[in-house]
Amino acid sequence: MSDMLVNLLKLPPLEPVxxxxxxxxxxxxxxxxxxxxxxxxxxxxxxxTAWADExxxxxxxxxxxxxxxxxxxxxxxFSAYECTRRGFFGPTGVAESERGxxxxxxxxxxxxxxxxxxxxxxxxxxxxxxxxxxARTVGATLIPDSAPGVYADPLSNPAQSDGAEPxx
Length: 168
Hints:
By secondary structure, the protein is α+β, with helices and mostly antiparallel strands. It has one domain (about 5-150): Gcn5-related N-acetyltransferase (GNAT) (Aminopeptidase). It is built from 5 helices and 7 strands, in the order βαβααβββαβαβ. The protein has helices spanning about 15-25, 35-45, 50-60, 105-115, 130-140; strands spanning about 5, 25-30, 65-70, 75-80, 90-95, 120-125, 140. A 7-stranded mixed β-sheet has the order 2-3-4-5-6-1-7, sandwiched between helices. α2 packs antiparallel against α3 (about 50-60). The longest helix has 15 residues, at about 105-115.
């Protein structure tokens, strides 16, 4: 999977999307520290343990770099940024039953606006799945020759690494 580049200076406004979610009874907000276990459980059950590990870093950031979508007191989606690498968006996921209703868009915009507030002009969406969604929603463009990128797994394949020399 390739990475994509997003011009954070040209993001669509966030507030109308958040307001549309409110009208649909979905609250999109920054995560709180006391929710780590519930959010991690949501991510592990619906996505992967690796993603749950990745967002653990977002809980250590100040401010927390995870956004949640909540309906009736239950997590229905999440997004994260600045977890794997600086300037990176992801991971993100929405419960299957909630897809197609704008939740993913709201979470994406919240996190990308978070990157912009940190002073970044450009953000990277790492290891993208739905490239068309990112291109349509925020004008993201594929970064040539970016696979496997930072998500190469040296624990699974020792021939892949992040370029760092092993300890001697």
